[in-house]
Amino acid sequence: MKSQTLKENKDFRRLYYRGKSVASPCLVTYVMKSRAGGVRYGITTSKKIGNAVERNRSRRVIRAALAELEGQIGGSFDIVFVARSKTSHVKMQRVLAEMEEHFKKLGVLNENNR
Fold first, then answer.
1. Between vectors from CA 43 to CA 40 and to CA 44, what angle results, nearest 5°?
2. CA distances from 70 to 16, 29, 33, 96, 102 (A)
3. Which of 46, 74, 79, 114 is packed most tightly, with the most Cβ within 10 A?
4. What is the pLDDT of residues 55-74, one digit of tens each?
5. What's the Rg (C-alpha) of the chain?
């Protein structure tokens, strides 16, 4: 099942206030159970990250890491990723490792696919 993107400001705010979060040097992840069915995700990159090139690379790296883990997500969740200043300077495998660690802590990954 293909995931959808979150675009509404209210969806992002709801996750910031009511979702569970885990932070690491490259990434902050907010997760909340959803009744929508399937996975919906959003990516935030602020101007603190750097110029447009660095922000776009951060989003691209996060999207690529999520694509690797998408099949292992069990259930329907809303997820927001917040890029950090390191995100644009590291390889996708580093972000993937941190994202997998976050998902394990937050109970997002399906038990059967580990």
1. 140
2. 22, 15, 16, 11, 14
3. 79
4. 999 999 999 999 999 989 98
5. 13
